[in-house]
Design a protein that fits this description.
Layout (H helix, E strand, L loop, with lengths): L8 E4 L23 H17 L3 E4 L16 E4 L2 E4 L10 H11 L5 E2 L11 E3 L4 E5 L5 H11 L3 E5 L12 E5 L4 E4 L6 H10 L4 E2 L2 H5 L6 E2 L3 E5 L6 H6 L3 E5 L2 H4 L10 E2 L13
Parallel strand pairs: 1-2, 4-5, 7-8, 10-11, 13-14
Antiparallel strand pairs: 1-15, 3-4, 6-7, 9-10, 12-13
Bound molecules: arginine.
Length: about 280
């Protein structure tokens, strides 16, 4: 049975100034050249695909001094129109947080919380119908989990990430159907206790193999029906189809050099009211 997609709003930032000049995760090797025109072209295919699927994509102005800004998922978390800002773990990315906050303020969002504790937005927060799943271990502070729970009024489930290749929750887990609490994840990225928590909360989860997780296959975005994911994660396509999803292969090979793929480039704006998200800066 095919599933139903629901229209989404996404915030993205073109990789106009993307480069790998520092290394804050094991994927980043500053000695490997980045093909910037190719990175832009790959990113545009993703943006255009969202729009072709009927989703709204708003854009954040890229800043020349912030080469990782293309990874827009890390800049904030928005649920019910409430915006939890980010606080980055590494100084190289600190100023991205204020760019995101300015964007939300300029568009009339009023429920905005500037965090006291380190959280890297949707890099470590994943939203299902029942919970906010929250990664910790490499970037976001466990204290940010309480902060998110208090601000959003939703139960936050802390999950310990143990493998540096999966330094953000969104590299190891993807929400496929938020209403139905359906996820896919790679158990090897989590501590033993967190694996048991995931198995208890999501007994029917799609379990990814290491080869697909290692291609950042879980760094995917689902609208409830279409699942956009890195093309190299070939082993995930058939299991997704068997569950009624429509996998869509994306090539973001240049952005992978920064340690990110589809989801990292995509922040979801979960809001009920119609705000002026279409207006470009
Ligand atoms: N180079 C970026 C960093 O290490 C990549 C962030 C990827 N984003 C994500 N949502 N996992 O911070």
């Amino acid at each position: 049975m095919p599933r139903d997609a629901s229209p989404r709003r996404y915030l993205m930032c073109p990789p106009a100034h993307f480069r790998v000049t520092y290394s804050i995760n094991p994927w980043m090797d500053p000695s490997k050249p980045v093909d910037l025109p190719l990175a832009l072209a790959q990113w545009e295919v993703l943006r255009d695909r969202y729009r072709a699927l009927g989703h709204t994509v708003s854009l954040l102005e890229p800043r020349p001094d912030l080469p990782d800004m293309v990874f827009a998922a890390n800049g904030a978390t928005v649920i019910d129109g409430r915006v939890l800002g980010a606080r980055f773990a590494h100084p190289e990315r600190t100023r991205e947080a204020e760019a995101h906050l300015a964007w939300f303020r300029a568009r009339g969002f009023t429920e905005i919380h500037e965090p006291a504790h380190i959280n890297e937005g949707e890099g470590d927060f994943a939203v299902t119908g029942s919970y906010i799943l929250a990664g910790r271990g490499f970037r976001s502070s466990p204290l940010s989990h309480d902060e998110a729970q208090e601000f959003f009024g939703r139960p936050v489930i802390g999950l310990d990430l143990v493998d540096p290749r999966y330094y953000h929750l969104d590299t190891a887990l993807c929400v496929l159907d938020d209403a139905a609490d359906e996820v896919m994840y790679y158990p090897g990225a989590f501590s033993r206790g967190s694996r048991a928590v995931l198995a208890r909360l999501f007994p029917d989860a799609l379990i990814a193999e290491e080869t697909d997780a290692g291609a950042l296959g879980l760094n995917a975005v689902s609208d409830g029906r279409h699942v956009l994911l890195p093309q190299a994660a070939a082993g995930l396509f058939a299991p997704l189809r068997r569950r009624g999803y429509e996998p869509i292969a994306m090539d973001l090979g240049e952005l992978l050099k920064g340690g990110g793929s589809v989801k990292c480039c995509t922040q979801e704006l979960r809001q009920e009211q119609e705000l002026d998200v279409r207006r470009e800066l």
